[in-house]
Amino acid sequence: MIDMDYIKERFKAKADELGADVKDLLKQHGSKKLDEVTVAQTYQGMRGVTGLVSETSLLDPNDGIRFRGYSIPELREKLPRVPDGSEPLPEGLFYLMLIGELPEEKDAQHLSNVWGRRSQVPRHVFNTIDKLPPDTHPMTQFGIGIMAMQTESVFAKAYSDGINKKEYWSYMYEDAMNLIARLPRLAAYIYRRKYKGNVHIEPDASLDWAGNFAHMLGYDDDSFRALMRLYMTIHADHEGGNVSAHTVHLVGSALSDPYLAFASGMNGLAGPLHGLANQEVIRWIQQLREELGGGLPNKAEIEKYVRKTLDEGKVVPGYGHAVLRKTDPRFTAQMEFAKKHLPDDELVNIVWRVYEVVPPILQELGKVKNPWPNVDAHSGALLVHYGLVEYEFYTVLFGVSRALGVLASLCWDRALALPIERPKSVTTRWMKDFVSGKIETGF
Ligand SMILES: CC(=O)SCCNC(=O)CCNC(=O)[C@H](O)C(C)(C)COP(=O)(O)OP(=O)(O)OC[C@H]1O[C@@H](n2cnc3c(N)ncnc32)[C@H](O)[C@@H]1OP(=O)(O)O
Ligand SMILES: O=C([O-])CC(=O)C(=O)O
């Protein structure tokens, strides 16, 4: 038996409403052309092809991400906070993404309580992590931990017992809520085992989701908690086509439960062109510092180092984006946080100097479509300031946050009963026949 909490009831009401709208939209305009696809797009990452629906957020190439219409500066102003807090509660963002309306304080508080109550991670998950060599990359441990937790899926069990299609969303919702609740504990366990002598910190039920995460990691400073709330908010979602979100949507479309789908998305986030770039940025800056023997490098030294990176056929981590065409507002939000809390931090000042040097060099190459920094260019330097220096762990933090967006989206996918995803692929032989006119029409 599944309980109907009031947020779940609200979600169901919203989903019924939107479901009816979508039905109507398809009936009236289902055959209207939305896009045309070129041969180049088919080979080049489907860039610019509109082929997915994701309700939780929408990206503008110049202005960046908006969550249900709200920009990051607006969210920092409008979402509920802890008393005297300076940054939004990620619980509020989750509510906004799920329900489509700004939450009241009590809604965010309710989610803090629900997630707090559901946060227990089964012992066998920790036992599974304990079997891994300690030097296993934290993202690999994270993926394995999520997979080990799949034993808890209420959707998988209900499906196996036999349920009506109309009930799928309800079990998926429960899994999504349980998984979000448990991820900080799993992530903190991985961190403390690998880097803090396997000494673990019990959750503090009086804290909010991100505050408790900071606490379990071992960072109880108020300003670090504020950073975690901001970090968990701004990394949560980036519309539907990015590798992690698309993967969760795709795998979920096979009715794989949220544990399976989310673990798949995390394997995508673990790639250096996606979420792993945050660790690469810190590694790259540290190598620069080592080469120069420490201190704040001047612009000429940074320029030389950037050119060396490019000459070696490597990318400059934290710069460029598949869709954005201006400085990422998530970078700017972190820069503002740093200006307020740690303006004199040396590493942060290097990040800011790199920001002055890199864009014109990338622009000069003539092929880089976006020479500006993305979210990953700034996040590591803030963490280092507070003592969280173990940069291989950074993408796990990103992953915990990303759960909010992709799992809210997964709830929508099932509530709208979206079908299994299966686009068409062709061979180059087929493509040649098509362009030479041997095949006259597409499929
Ligand atoms: C949370 C996130 O996922 S944000 C992205 C995090 N990733 C990074 O920061 C890694 C560095 N950046 C990159 O590799 C790229 O900019 C990506 C992967 C983010 C986007 O890739 P694309 O959409 O293919 O970028 P774009 O169309 O501009 O690429 C054109 C060329 O410029 C190169 N380029 C793009 N960004 C960079 C960069 N930061 N440094 C050097 N070269 C770059 C590409 O490698 C490509 O070169 P090629 O034609 O020789 O293969
Ligand atoms: O949108 C993308 O492709 C990558 C990105 O910034 C994210 O997923 O946060």
Automatic annotation (TrEMBL):
EC number of the protein: 2.3.3.16
Pathway: Carbohydrate metabolism; tricarboxylic acid cycle; isocitrate from oxaloacetate: step 1/2
Keyword Transferase carried by entry: yes
Record keywords: Transferase
Similarity section: Belongs to the citrate synthase family.
PANTHER family: CITRATE SYNTHASE, CITRATE SYNTHASE, MITOCHONDRIAL
Name of the protein described by the UniProt record: citrate synthase (unknown stereospecificity)
Organism (species): Compostibacter hankyongensis
Lineage: Bacteria, Pseudomonadati, Bacteroidota, Chitinophagia, Chitinophagales
